[in-house]
Amino acid sequence: MKKQKMISTIMIAVFVIVCALGISIIMLLIAHKDVVLAFSKLAQGAVGNKMNFARTVRMMAPLIMLALTFSVALRGQMFNAGGQGQFYLGAVCATAVSLLFPNLPGWLLIILGIIAGMAGGMLWALIPAVLKVRFRCSEVVTTLMFNYIAVYFTEFLVRVPFYVPGAVGESGSTANIPEGVSLTTLVKGSELTTEIIFALVVTAIVWYWSRWTVSGYETEVVGVNAVAARYTGVNVKNRQLLAMAISGAIAGAGGALEIIGVFHRFVIDFAPSVGFDGIVVSLMAGNSFPLIPVTAFFLSCLQSGAKTMEMFGKVPRSLVDVMIGVIIVVVTVKRLPFVVKGTKRAIKENKES
Amino acid sequence: MDEIIKLENIEKHFGSVYANKDINLTIKRGDVHSIVGENGAGKSTLMNILYGMIRPDSGSIYYDGEKIEIKSPHDAIARGIGMVHQHFMLVPSFTVMENIVLGLPPRGEKIWRPENFRPEITKIMEDFGLEVDLNAKIQDISVGIKQRVEILKILYRGAKVIILDEPTAILTPQETQELFSTIRLLIKNDHTVIFISHKLKEVMEISDKISALRDGVLVNTVNRDDVTAKDVAYMMIGRELEPLQKTLEDGEKEVSLKITDLKAANDGHVAIEDISFCLHKGEVVGVAGVEGNGQSTLVDAIVGAQGTGGGTIVFEGEDITGCSIAERMQKGIAHIPEDRMTEGLALPLSAEKNLILGIHNKEPIKQKGRLNWKEAEKISEELIKSYSVKIKSRKEAVANLSGGNMQKIVVARELNREPKIVVACQPTRGVDIGSSKYIRECLLDVKKKGGSVLLVSADLDEILELSDRIVVMYDGKISGVLDAREATEERLGELMFGRG
Fold it and tell me: Which fold has domain B255-332+419-496?
């Protein structure tokens, strides 16, 4: 059964990708563009050489973290649209720790930074979560709105308490964090650091949590049917708060890792679409944790290859946005008739063999 | 032309499952023709095909000897076929009159005035003895009257053939009798009634002809006068059904659950008040009443899903009024919720995951802080076997199961904890006869082992069959407590209406 579920999840992901490619091809044909050239350049930009491939993998890390953010919350029937804000809060907290205690050793600042980032993200997620379970405020709205608060609140922090006079400060950035606070680079000359390993480890931990722990199991039941969970003695509100806390902590850790691993300073609104992209990755993975790195890789290929495609393929990079749009539309279609049929066939064959 | 409707070789399948297989059915004008069968036998599918809600894969429909095609309920009504669904399709905030004429084009004037339709509706009401206050709002009238409104609605649209889908499931015995007299008047006025039910007693009372469906196949069509209820049951399930053995016991028994002056509110309204009764060890207490008279609130208060506004609940000498659901479960209270789909099961999850719910946080499933799926496998395989749940594997999602098997999963899960009290709400609603009997046996087994059962059910037969004592609720209060030996349907019916 597990296998069949996996088959159907993968089939849906494949179908989504085929649709996205198909519709983009149609658009390119209408616009009289060279389809082969455009896509070969896209692929080249994404995985064509070592450096491009390193960039693509580097871009996966925040996508994985924010996809996990969304998926974990959804497990507990919470729609966390606020990954973006939680990510910024985590990033700013990690930056603050390093700037406030520059004399501590680097390794300690990394650990403290990640912890602070998790705490910041968790806090930012828990406020809407508490509002939801206590006062039934729709978490969709509150988490979304908290994104805006996060952007402006972090801007305030950058402009006032952490302001550094001069061009850096005026451009909306904090000072750089100490040299020693950085992760090991995996491919020389690229931005690819051990951040990606962190992201994969977090994926594994979350997967373990969902499968092997009591709270993970209870959260799954709550996510599917909160009433049934309640009637069988599960503390639904606790589980929803927990899901949001974990979710926010992951986003916060994602933000902290981006600062420590890549940016080394906090720039206002430095990754404006990462929260949204995380949701797309999560939806493509169909709420399956192990599949998230795979779909994250696909999306980061698109984004990483877009620039090359624009430069050499003579196609604007917004084509990638179109593809992402198509993906979202297809993913939100709940019943794909032929996928259902295909799955049934797969089940049947599986049974016969 | 004697035949009003003829179905020829009707077939319909969903996926690989046949809902209807090669069905040939003739319905005579002026008959009450009952269609019986267990849940999932294909009754509703067949009727939905006749009413145009579902298109058949193959086969043809004849009306008055003429081959017709029914593409939508619209076509059906135009032909004079009307259906009253199990769930009413009425607008609660509209009046009866507005509901009856809803969707009809304006008459005479350009503006739609329900009043213009009044004389005709009144005439139909008189012809068929369907007394209804046309100015009352739907939200203020009882279930029985709502059903009348539905019948009026289709009669007004010119229905000659009336399909009633499980019409008595929601009615008290008295209301059922009123419905039957309406049916008799319909027949007298040259109408034809198709009556869908699985209550044999009613079928035997009202029908001229009886057709039984089993697993999508039409087993047989017989004249009512030629058969006994037992024959019909045999047609439906394909085997004999032994009656349940209930033993009534006398003598003083230990009190298990004692409820005193319980009061609780629902959405700010008082839902139950002055509720006091006891549940003894080794006893089944039935709670009867028309739905919506406080039973659900009472159950929620007992299992801990809802706070109380006064009174106490004492379980084995311990006041549990303030305990949480989990604490009460721990002490030995099990709950079979009213609606397995929304309250009992996590549908998309596997049977295994559903079966361990409630014991997942204890040994042996929880070991050293993590779930031991090996143990879960052992337990769920055992339960699936001993409750003979029809399922491919324990990993299959419960959403794929039939109603009866879903309910067995709930019952298995709850009884597996070896509870001291089982609060069972509508435990066999929408469950096929075979599984119903099994579930009822399980409940009697609890009693035999010295546990107690609080059985809340809208099915009076079930209450009478299982209970030692019967508490009747009306308007949030207890309107009477009867010993099983003195309880009759009539007496219960009176109490259910607060007349006692």
Answer: Rossmann fold (3.40.50)
